[in-house]
Amino acid sequence: MLRTPARFCRHCGTAVELRLPDDGDTRQRAVCPACGLVHYDNPLNVVGTVPVWGETGEFVLLCKRNIEPRLGKWTLPAGFMELGETTAEGAARETDEEAGAEIEMGDLFTLMNVPRVGQVHLYYRARLLSDRFNPGHETQEARLFTEAEIPWDEIAFRTVKETLEHYFADRRTGRFGIHTLDIT
Ligand code: ZN
Predict the structure, then answer these.
(1) Above pLDDT 70, what percent of the chain?
(2) Which one, out of 45, 147, 149, 182, has a CA that is 20 to 30 A from the CA of 84?
(3) What value, to the nearest 5°, has the Cα angle with vertex 171 and ends 126 and 80?
(4) Residue 152 Cα, ligand 1 centroid: separation in angstroms?
(5) Domain with 122 in it: what CATH number?
(6) Average pLDDT, the chain
(7) Among 124, 121, 169, 168, CA closest to 149
(8) Binning pLDDT at 50, 70 and 90, where does residue 170 land?
(9) How far does residue 15's CA lie from ligand 1's centre (Å)?
(10) How far is the CA of 20 from the centre of ligand 1 (A)?
C-alpha cells in the first residue's frame, strides 16, 4: 500500500489541504493553507545485501524476521535508506544491524522498482568475512543456506526472492550482472 499523505503541515502544524499546488504541478499534494508549504511524497529506497560465504559463494545468509510485516519469514538483510548515507552505506548498515555480519561490499546486483508501494529496492553483492553472526532485535535467527536449502515458500518479499533467483542463476554461469526489474 502507498503511504497515506501528511495530514498536518511539517513546518507549522496546520491541517493541510489535498489539492493541486499553484505552480503548474499536475499531481495533488498536501498543501498547507497557512504557510504554503507543499509536501511532496516520493518513493523510498530499500537497500540491502546478498551476503555470501564459501569458496564459490555457495552459501547465502538469510535472516528470519522478528518483526512485522512477514514475522517469521526469511529475508536478505535490507531496510530503508537513511538521510545522509549512500545506498552502499545503507546496505552495509542494515547488514550489520539485522545480521551482525562482517562483510566486504561488492557491486550493485539488483535494482527493482515496486511502484505499488512507492519503493525502489537495491541489493549489493557482499562477501562474508566470517560465518559467525550476531543478529539484532529485528532478527530471530541468521543462518547460511545453499541453493537447495533455501526455504522458497517462506521468503518474506518478492524482491528478495527475485534477487536470490538471480544470484543462483548468475552463480551457475559465473558471470554476475546488474538486474533491473519492475515488480508490478
Ligand atoms: Zn504550514
Answers:
(1) 99
(2) 182
(3) 35
(4) 48
(5) 3.90.79.10
(6) 96
(7) 168
(8) very high
(9) 8
(10) 16
The pLDDT, as a whole number, for residue 1 is 63
Q: Are residues 108 and 26 in the same domain?
A: no
Q: How far is CA 85 from CA 16, 30, 82, 120, 135, in A?
A: 30, 27, 6, 16, 22
Q: 115 alpha carbon to ligand 1 midpoint, in Å?
A: 29
Ligand 1 center from residue 120 Cα (angstroms): 29
Beta-carbon neighbours within 5 Å of ion ligand 1 = 9, 11-12, 14, 32, 34-35, 37
User: How many whole angstroms from 18 Cα to the centroid of ligand 1?
Assistant: 13
Determine the average pLDDT of the residues in 24-45. 94
* Pair (19, 57) in one structural domain: no
| DSSP label at residue 84 | T
Cα(14) to centroid(ligand 1), Å: 5
CB 60 within 8 A of CB 77: no
Residue 123: count other Cβ atoms within 10 Å of its Cβ. Answer: 28
pLDDT at 65 > cutoff 80: yes
Please check whether residues 27 and 52 belong to one and the same domain. Answer: no
Domain span at residue 77 reads 44-182
CA 125 from centroid of its chain's CA atoms: 13
